[in-house]
Specification:
CATH architecture: 3-Layer(aba) Sandwich
CATH superfamily: Vaccinia Virus protein VP39
Distance between the termini: 26 Å
CATH topology: Rossmann fold
Number of domains: 1
Number of strands: 9
Radius of gyration: 15 Å
Shape: globular
Bound molecules: S-adenosylmethionine
Structural class: alpha/beta
Strand order of the largest sheet: 5-4-3-6-7-9-8
Number of helices: 6
CATH class: Alpha Beta
Largest sheet: 7 strands, mixed
Mean pLDDT: 98
Length: 198
Amino acid sequence: MTAIPYDLLMKIQQGTMANEYRGVPMLKNPFDMALYSLLLDRVKPRTLIEIGSHRGGSAMWFADQQPAMQVLSIDLQPPDLVHRNVRFIKGDARRLALETESIARPLLVVEDSDHQAATTAAVLDFFDPCLRPGEYIVIEDGILTAMRVADSYGGGPLRAIHEFLERSGGRYEIDRSLCDYFGPNVTWNVDGYLRRTA
Ligand SMILES: C[S@@+](CC[C@H](N)C(=O)[O-])C[C@H]1O[C@@H](n2cnc3c(N)ncnc32)[C@H](O)[C@@H]1O
């Protein structure tokens, strides 16, 4: 699990829920903002697909980190926000219908929608055939288990990650250099930085 003690975790969560970027809510904590920066520098994606836009702050923040990257941000209710490198699209994480053949690579996928295990599993299964070795899919908020609320999410993202790793036959690995960068799973994306290996 995470090395962050429960009380501190819940305090950081309060700040995370109040976080903003350029005046727009962005539900990211300082650990993962740093880890994403490292990941973006390492992979230099040309396309980032985010599932779960909320108000659009995270999509704008991602786009501003890598000016050469296009961000596609999908939500049941996309925000009414304009950024030259972001497209907000209406879509359902459980029924994704994206054409991924012609997108610029490398691709980085960030799943941050409703955190139900079944939704996370649907996103993992949708992108599995399309991800290439060296590319990443980040599954956010496995921390819900440490927050003791994963039961309300059908086991939450962490359950979906571990079940997916079992059925995907070694094609992915958890990038421990990111998950454990600040201490064991000192990230909201517990075991969630997944790298395609084969
Ligand atoms: C945790 S918020 C996203 C936070 C955002 N990525 C950020 O860091 O600021 C979750 C978002 O997922 C959206 N959502 C929930 N269920 C979804 C689904 N089935 N498909 C697509 N989006 C969904 C919600 O509308 C909400 O905006």
